[in-house]
Design a protein that fits this description.
The chain is mostly helical. It has a domain of 61 residues. 83% of the residues lie in helices and 0% in strands. The longest helix has 52 residues. The radius of gyration is 52 Å and the shape is rod-shaped. The N and C termini lie far apart (175 Å).
Length: 219
């Protein structure tokens, strides 16, 4: 009986201790990581959403800018507006727009170079004409100052010699530049010879050389 009473007392003490420990544990605040994550999770999701939205907007702006650039190229480059029968009525791809733009820029560079060469040639012609103009003015002034000087002193033979000398000089360059393999090649060579050897400055030099030669023969 005494042993039974002792065991019952110990059991009661253990039961009360467990009860007190359970009550104390339930009164302590929960500081686990899971609870902390639970309170911070809504803030993290909101931050991710804002970053995702900002990235989406930036990407859309970039795509809009690229699309506007291609639209501007199609509006500026004339060949992009022409119908391409190889693709029918389909919209031009970005690769085709870029290739047509490159081709058009290369064409403009060639045209610019061609125009610069033409301008250079015209400037040389203008300079030669100015020189001829000055010489003619001097000749006219000399005749006005001395209208009787040299009158009836130049014979037809001298005129013919001058003309012959000019033609001989031109024929030498003509004969050296012209090919008669075919009519097409002959035509091309003639135009090339005219552009190269019949410039005002070149003709002026030829005439002056012939006049000096005739003068040396007469005097």
């Amino acid at each position: 009986s005494a042993l039974f009473m002792e065991n019952a007392r110990k059991s009661s003490i253990v039961s009360r201790a467990n009860s007190i420990g359970s009550t104390s544990a339930s009164s302590v605040p929960n500081t686990d990581d899971e609870d902390s994550d639970y309170h911070q999770e809504p803030y993290k999701e909101s931050y991710k959403d804002r970053r995702r939205r900002a990235h989406t907007q930036a990407e859309q702006k970039r795509r809009d800018a690229i699309k506007k650039g291609y639209d501007d190229l199609q509006a500026i480059v004339p060949t992009c507006e022409q119908q391409d029968f190889s693709i029918g009525s389909q919209k031009l791809s970005k690769a085709i727009v870029l290739q047509k733009t490159i081709d058009y820029i290369q064409f403009l560079h060639k045209e610019k170079k061609k125009q610069e060469e033409e301008v250079s040639t015209l400037r040389k012609d203008v300079m030669a004409l100015k020189i001829m103009k000055v010489n003619y003015e001097q000749i006219v002034k000399a005749h006005q100052d001395n209208p009787n000087e040299g009158k009836d002193q130049v014979s037809d033979e001298v005129k013919f010699n001058v003309f012959q000398g000019i033609m001989d000089s031109l024929f030498q360059s003509f004969n050296a530049s012209i090919s008669v393999t075919s009519f097409q090649e002959l035509s091309a060579c003639v135009f090339s010879w005219i552009e190269e050897h019949c410039k005002p400055q070149t003709l002026r030099d030829v005439v002056i050389g012939v006049l000096h030669q005739v003068k040396s023969q007469l005097y």
